[in-house]
Design a protein that fits this description.
- By secondary structure, this protein is of the alpha/beta class.
- The protein has a single domain, classed as STAS domain (Transcription Regulator spoIIAA), CATH 3.30.750.24.
- The protein is built from four helices and six strands, in the order E-E-E-H-E-H-E-H-E-H.
- Strands 1-2-3-4-5-6 form a six-stranded mixed β-sheet, with helices on both faces.
- Strand 2 and strand 3 form a beta hairpin.
- Helix 1 (31-43) packs parallel to helix 2.
- The protein is globular.
């Protein structure tokens, strides 16, 4: 299942395979597109509270639409408690403050930042508690 929103070089793409989600953020997608992708995933029953998710932010540029992130938080909070893991693949350490804010907003999930897909996937596949 693939859900994509946005246009040109600014888009968000959600791919779900089984109990895994992959989110690609390119450019500076509109907040409405981010909300739309999550809403579509929830409505179609492909997103759930215990997913292990890889978020690729290597192509993200621009600013974060925090009201949209708050809306996504409210939408996913309805999923209840979870032991979800979210691995972020980033270009550099400048993303650390952004990820710390997201981690505080989505405290029902575990979050870690990586510079390679290999490391991110290994953590998502692991049974380690943290």
């Amino acid at each position: 299942m693939t859900i994509a929103r946005g246009q040109g070089s600014s888009q968000i793409v959600l791919k779900v395979r089984g109990d895994r989600a992959y989110v690609l953020v390119e450019g500076e997608p509109r907040g409405d597109d981010v909300i739309d992708v999550v809403r579509a995933g929830l409505d179609q029953g492909v997103l759930h509270g215990n997913m292990r998710t890889l978020v690729d932010l290597t192509g993200f540029i621009g600013s974060v639409d925090w009201p949209a992130i708050q809306t996504v938080r409210r939408m996913t909070r309805q999923q209840g408690d979870s032991d979800a893991r979210v691995a972020y693949v980033v270009r550099n350490n400048l993303f650390a403050p952004l990820i710390r804010i997201v981690e505080a907003l989505f405290s029902h999930s575990r979050h870690r930042t990586f510079h390679t897909y290999t490391e991110a996937i290994a953590w998502l596949d692991s049974d380690e508690p943290e």
